[in-house]
Here is the input.
Amino acid sequence: MAATAESLERKDKLEGIGCARKRKEDPRFIQGQGLYVDDINLPGMVYGALVRSPHAHARIKSINKEKALALPGVLAVLTADDLKPLSLHWMPTLGSDVQAVLADEKVAFQLQEVAMVIAEERYIAADGVDLVEVEYEELPAIVDPHKSMDADAPIIREDLVGKDEVGHGKRLHDNHIFTWEAGDKDSTDAVFDKAEVTIKEEILNPRVHPCPLETCGCVGSFDKVKGQLTVYMTSQNPHLVRTVLAMLSGIPESKIRVVTNDIGGGFGNKVPVYPGYVVAIVASIVLGRPVKWIESRIENISTTGFARDYHGSAELAADNDGRIKALRFNVLADHGAFNSHVSATKWPAGLFSICTGSYDIATAYVKVDAVYTNKAPGGVAYRCSLRVTEAVYLIERMIDILAQKLDIDKAEIRKRNFIQADQFPYNTSLGWTVDSGNYEPALDKVLKAVDYAGLRKEQAEKRAKGELMGIGISTFTEIVGAGPTKACDILGIGLFDSCEIRVNPTGSAIARMGTQTQGQGHETTYAQIIATELGIPSEEIQVEEGDTDKAPYGAGTWGSRSTPVGGAAVAKAARKIRDKARKIAAHLLEVSEDDLEWDIDQFRVKGVPDQAKTMKEIAMAAYSNIPDGMENGLEAVDYYDPPNFTFPFGAYVCVVDIDPKTGEAKIRRFYALDDCGTRINDMIIEGQVHGGLTEALAVAMGQLIDFDEDGNLLGNSLMDYYLPTTVETPHWETDYTVTPSPHHPLGAKGVAESPHVGGIPCFSNAVIDALSHLGVTHVDMPHTAHRIWKKLHELGAN
Amino acid sequence: MKVKLDKRYPVAASANSAWQFLQDVKSVAACMPGAEITEQSDETHFKGMVKVKVGPVTSTFNGDIEVQGVDAEKKELILLGKGADTKGTSSASMLLTASIQDTADGQCELIGDAEVTVNGKMASFGGRMLDSISDQILQQFADNFANNVIAMGEGAAAEVAAAKVADAPKELNGLAMIWHLITGFFNKLFSRESSQP
Here is the structure.
């Protein structure tokens, strides 16, 4: 029919939800026209560089600035003593602790910030750093968190001695931070006591670093005349940073402007406020000149937010058919020298209690004890929601171990334990309400696509010949979109998010957001939501983020919250505009609002399709011809407080071949099916899945932040720290199902973190599956050739 | 990052002359390539420095040396050296027990038992090479030591040794050391290949 073809064409022209529209950001990136923080150059700008401690634990006996100050071009050398009068030598952390901005009398991790040299030029600042003489008295360092609470352990945080609490309940030792529990311990213990089968495994999520391509940095610029502070910086959450800066500095928040232009990757690393930012800002206030501070790669890897370091002791109780009856996970969390763990206030162990996964487990108990060590502070969520990778890794590993113990197929045991489609919304035994899911069809689709039965047959044949082949499965459920303000806040600010849309008289629109893209493609996808909701072509919609003077307040982009929270705010703001547009259309067409229906980009009179007003016409009317009693203009703002988290899921299969002689694991095939609910842009989703899987490969197969017994970081440059390139990255096969979220305005759930969270256990499961016939139940990551070779050597298998 | 070394180096001279030399801390320190004693605080405490050159970059380590024990009976000297580079990015310490033992041929051996600890940038970057590098440094030290002891004597051998002492490099050359490591690695590789049946 002509009408259908015509309306399809109109719809296509909008490039709305479901269109694999090309990224609007890319032309400027491809042409080198991005604007990153190091591209900012202001008149009179000077440079800061940090003096850092070579020791993991030492007392500072003296700091001599004289030689540095004598170097021509050096303007100032700031130490903790200089920040003391301003009370800025310590700052609050997101983990309810405090952190030294510049080391106050002692250093507690290697490369801790000790002083900042400010100079006219970057190279002079670096030379100045070499001339600052710091005298240290070395102290014994704690590197192994299992030794933190030993009776004779050296006290890492002397500033906390006598405090029996650091924000999260009672401390048991001077190096203890908190104990956090969820679930019912007694009934869990009771189920374990009489279970037919129990399994236990020590599983480590080792310390890794998100290592974004762009390191952290800022330009602090204080205008003494106006009393205004502008900070250009790399932040995933500029509004929260503005609030923190107001709290720290005493400058009214209205006089602070935080600007984040383009960001070269965040992955959780750019959520916290780091000492370098604070000192650069103080230096700008003191000197009255803009101060730029940009981290080196080594500084980034060594000192800014690491991830994981969760030492798990995991147990499952089951019946002989492999049905899980109870789960008991105990974790020792290494938080480093300061608890800068990024989390919502009430969740000191993040969302770790999502660890029951996709499975119907009636009884569960988890306990996390966090301790201090002489390592860099952090605990950021590296491409995942807070502590979700750790949780999913444990359950996805444990279900494989249970399958091995009972000799049940690893796909079959998952099916026996899945939460069934008719159980949603499903209340987990650890307190979450999983919004929607349909796990078994997703897994079946993947098993069919990879010919799972055929792979198992091939594996059996290869084993008979002494060859090593592994099949890894991961059927994960994520928890993203933090979060309902009744459950989640940071520094007392609820984790809602916001969108403000203004439609111009000529029908184009601008949207401003509280979120902050770091490469996710927000300019592209948010515009698509508005296009579908308002009938304005995506191309005519401008999306802006990252200038706190312009955008409404929001908690930023991390924990896959942009689509679940920000995207919902976009839809709700657009719908407020559409409601007003309906009133204007009724006025223009002289009919009642109820007689109108929405049709792609216009309101038309029901039954009289040629009687219609397009959004463009309505927009102009909003500024000229409105009904009595209505205000001019066509704009709306929405602050969206999600009623629940969203729970994306997926089913992944990885096939790996291991060379017994070298231990090298070659990824033969990786098939990833993701269900993120409603899909806004297939191309961007696929790109996110590729990126997440590549970072999962990185973590599972190579990344490790390792220390020697004195707390020396072993390998903090890209010479040692593994970042896979196209050479190491296998071909990714992607697929999807669609199970919308019932509580999200668009049914969307968020996807960027699923491939990372679900991918890591899938690689591990594949590698360990290749060794399972040799009696191996678990090997810790990373699965480098050397480590696999050592394991094979131990087993006498090579 | 710690390395323990236990080495023996032959010295073509008598045990007595080697022991005589060993007690002179200033001269012994000078056997360390690039090292010198800059100040003597008291009988057993010295200040010194070591220059390390890697490519175009020269680093200077300043440190303290403490003579912890001299045992004439055993011909044994215990030294603790501690230092940090002037840029404040690395530090190192070495507890050295050096002794002289007679060998059957009227000559002697220098026995070095050292525990080397390295912190900071040097540990992060060079940690995995520390074993081999310490080995290299000690070898150079032992060569210089032997030459110095031999040069104390008379005759052609002493003259050759004295010339070698004069020619010894005045700074610790990091790149040359890495080159030694690489050649050493290949030598080991090929000698193992050829020794296989």
Q: What stands out?
A: The mean pLDDT of chain B is 82.
